[in-house]
Amino acid sequence: PASIGDDQVKNLLINLSLNTPNFKRSRTNFNNAELFSANAIFNPHPKLKIKTLGFLHWNERDFFRKTIQNFKATQNPFTNLEDYILTNKEHTGFGKIDLNYDFTKTSSLESVTKYNKGATNGLSNLVFNGVSTLQELEATNELLDQKLSFSNKFNDNRVFLLTGRYIEESTPQDYFINQFFYENLFSETGGINNVAQKVQNNMRFAGIEGHLLDRGENDNLLELQAGSQYRKDQLNSSFQLKEGDNITQIPPDFKNNTSYVTHDLYLKSKYLWKMGDLSLIGKLDFHQLFNSLEYEGFSETEDPFFINPSLGLDWKINSKNRIRTTYSHNTTNAGVLDVYNNFILTGYRSFQAGSGSFNQLEASTFLLNYELGEWSDRIFANTVLIYTRNHDFFSTISSIEPNYSLSEKVLFKDREYLSLNSNIERYLKLIGSNLKLDIGYTKSNYKNIVNESELRDIKTWNYSYGGDLRSGFTGLFNFHLGTKWTTNKINTENFSNSFTNNVSFLDLSFLVNEHFETELKGERYYFGNIQEDNPYYFMDIDATYNIKPNKVSLALEARNLFNTETFRNFTISDIGTSTTSYRLLPRFALLKLKYRF
User: Fold this and answer.
1) So what's the pLDDT on residue 22?
2) pLDDT score at 119
3) For a tag on the chain, would you pick the N or C end, based on fewer CB atoms within 10 A?
């Protein structure tokens, strides 16, 4: 309830990567951060409460990565080598004011105002196939978010909510590369020695929604929502070929001036019908869209209407067994990053373009959930099955070369996704510990076109299995140990590949007395298809001495006691494989003193 606008997110097209997949971010987070915050609560009137929050945040992060990328989905396979060092500086200012006014004991008005302004400057030193390259990304973000919510509880069984929201956000980005890798893309490139990309992305959202909840006999529940949501995106981009500081070309197929407006008038209905231990949940959502799309020399409007139905069942068979199931059919509207028409440089060697047209995507989803026991029982099991069929989905037509890649979004038919996850927990009274076992399986398929190939059907599989044992002793000592294996496999017409990773851990905790406690944490990582420097081991220690409980404490944190300096992992995709090495934070100890008053 009252969540209108929560799904409205900013669109960032360019990012200098700081990601470390399948690994703890804290071990690669070379940073220097400062934070100042202040908050207060005021009650100027018995019916009025005001909450304020403000903070300023500065952060400088360094990131180190070396990558070997093997591209196999082309007629002439090739390998790219990257040595990547990034320094990213961020600063943010944020303010929030909450006002809550109670008209009566059953009706109130709430106002939430947020303002955010931030800036990021990223500077990357990249050695790409032996060529030293500098990347610089300057980006700012400004956000204004205002929400008003009125609630009125007519009686114990009926509540009405009225919510309005306005969001305005601007995210300009300036991207610079001091090399030119794209000779084969453009004519008359003599003298060009660097490039720049400017992106201006503005979003404006306004919405209003009424929500009625009516609880009837036998706890039957009727929900009605009616509302209007308007969003306008303005996306401008300009890719510049430069000789020194002078702009020599702005290729017409590499600039955008896109205006995309979506207006959704909707009515949502939901009814929960209870018959003892059996509940039926039906939903019908009616949407009337008014879309408009404009870019150079093109203007089009459409007004599609669609219905999203859903039917669910919740059956508590007995005190130990419960089944939940849902079937839904959903139609969703494309976003601005799906519809812009020309190419945008999103990385030093990646150009991406949207479809240049309206699209609505249809999908059907089936969910089945089975529970055995309750959380507090000695045996508890939970199994979830999800099957999704995307009747329409976005994929790409790509041209991949050693120095660059071009990808255009295109709509294809029929994609499937299947996921099965199950866990079982059992309390072992003999050793006073809880045993948990987990298994997971996912299978999916999608399609794309690479380098003028035929339509490629790609299948992926993921298997995971593992368990952990956690003690529940009341004395000095407790432990928590576990392991998880994950296998990934991908198969295309040209090649197939797979690998298996493993993560294991052992945590030992000691509560010596009310003043002193300590915890030792050990981890082991094994990455499949890595022949050297594998596996990896880590040991951390946390110790706390409470000089005055809840008042004064002294703590010691020690990290990476084995002083592991780097780690490497292996990933696969439908176009090849990648082996990446990351630099880790060295062994260090941190002493903390906390005083609470």
Assistant:
1) 73
2) 96
3) C
What pLDDT is attached to residue 370? 96
Phi, psi of 514 (to 5 degrees): -70, -15
Q: Measuring CA to CA, how many Å separate 137 from each of 87, 92, 119, 248, 342?
A: 11, 16, 10, 21, 21
Separation in Å, CA 474 to CA 506, 512, 554: 19, 12, 24
List phi, psi (to 5°) of 559: -125, 150
Residue 47: phi, psi to the nearest 5?
Answer: -95, -5
Radius of gyration of the chain (CA): 28
Question: Residue 45: what residue type?
Answer: H
CA distances 440 to 420, 443, 464, 485, 590, Å, are: 6, 10, 5, 10, 38
Place of tokens 């000089």: 547
Q: What is the pLDDT of residues 293-319, one digit of tens each?
A: 999 888 999 999 999 999 999 999 998
Helix (H, G, I), strand (E, B) or coil at 95: strand
Beta strands at 321-333 and 305-316: parallel, antiparallel or unpaired? antiparallel
The list of the chain residues with pLDDT below 70 reads 533
Give the whole-angstrom CA distance, residue 592 versus residue 232: 48
Question: Pairing mode, if any, of strands 246-249 and 576-583?
Answer: unpaired
Tokens 């400062």 — which residue?
Answer: 34
Helices of type H across 210-249: none
Q: Are 169 and 202 in contact (CB under 8 A)?
A: yes
Q: What are the pLDDT digits (tens) for 2-34?
A: 789 888 887 788 988 887 777 888 899 999 999
The distance from CA 149 to its chain's CA centroid, rounded to whole angstroms, is 27
Amino acid making up residue 179? Q
Q: What are phi and psi of 318, to 5 degrees?
A: -155, -170
CB 5 within 8 A of CB 128: no
Q: Is the pTM of this model over 0.85?
A: yes
Distance CA 198, CA 175 (A): 6
183: left (phi over 0), alpha (psi -120 to 50) or beta: alpha
E runs forming strands in 296-404: 298-302, 305-316, 321-333, 344-347, 350-353, 360-372, 379-400
Number of residues assigned to the chain: 597
Beta-sheet pairing, 48-71 with 456-471: unpaired
Phi, psi of 403 (to 5 degrees): -95, -10
What is the C-alpha separation between 13 and 344, in angstroms, rounded? 8
Q: Count each helix (H run) and each strand (E run) in the chain, helices first.
A: 1, 30
Give dist(CA 38, CA 172) in Å, integer.
Answer: 29
- Specify burial of residue 450 (Cβ count, 10 A radius: 0-12, 13-18, 19+): buried
Cα separation values, 262 from 301, 335, 431, 517, Å: 10, 9, 60, 57
Q: Residue 254, Cα to own-chain centre: how many angstroms?
A: 28
